Amino acid sequence: MSELVVRNLGLQPYQEVWEAMKAYTADRDDQTPDELWCLEHPRVYTQGQAGKAEHILAPGDIPVIQVDRGGQVTYHGPGQLVIYLMLDLGRAKLGVRVLVDHIEQAIVEVLGELGIEAAPRADAPGVYVGSAKIASLGLRVRRGCSFHGLALNVDMDMTPFARINPCGYAGMSMCQVVDFAPDASVASLAQSLTQALSRRLAADHVKALDGWQGLRPAS
Predict the structure, then answer these.
(1) What is the pLDDT of residues 184-196, one digit of tens each?
(2) Ramachandran quadrant class, 96 (left: phi over 0; alpha: psi -120 to 50; beta: rest)
(3) How far apart, in whole angstroms, are the C-alpha atoms of residue 198 and residue 177?
């Protein structure tokens, strides 16, 4: 991989970013750089392609959006680090399974640096501390390019997870980074995790950008 753009977007509405991801993927060509989009979302439930309505127990005032990523229902909210991976898999010579492994192992590596022992599970994608899930994964590949990505619980209100069966598992325990490393922040985790992902993706040059510089978010 040559250049990788790491874009820090701050707090962004889910629908607008989803539309921007689809537009970026549809419009890209062989020269379009790969990008990592780091952000947080306002409170929202997203239901993946495999999602079943019965796993959304009591959404209340939190909107539910049906999306085109893999997986089932999850929750996004402030204090959760979301990284979307906009990658040309053919150009990078990456299969989807290898990409998932890179994402999971990058999360494990970064949490390990904080003294948190975490691991993926073969039967349920994502990263876990013991039996509790700390990070979720959901990808979509179109025209050989990936979008969507990972969500790492850092320092957030966890109560909305109790109003769904996270990832389709009733009673699944959820945890977050500050349960184990109280000084952790979304900003610090974004920096360390994008560095770990960049190494695993073998990026020759990483360019950091703030906001939508050079891109127009979908409206």
Answers:
(1) 999 999 999 999 9
(2) alpha
(3) 21
Q: Which residues pair with 38 in a beta bridge?
A: 8, 83
- As a whole number of angstroms, the distance between CA 165 and CA 142 comes to 28
> Is residue 75 scored above 90 in pLDDT?
yes
Provide the β-strand partners of residue 10. Answer: 39
Q: How confident is the model at residue 136 (pLDDT cuts 50, 70, 90)?
A: very high
The answer to whether the CB of 218 falls within 8 A of the CB of 22 is yes
Count of residues in the chain: 219
| β-bridge mates for residue 129, sequence order | 132
Q: Which of 54, 80, 92, 101 lies closest to 202, judged by CA?
A: 92
d(CA 114, CA 126) in angstroms, rounded, equals: 18
Query: Active-site positions?
Result: 167
DSSP 156: -
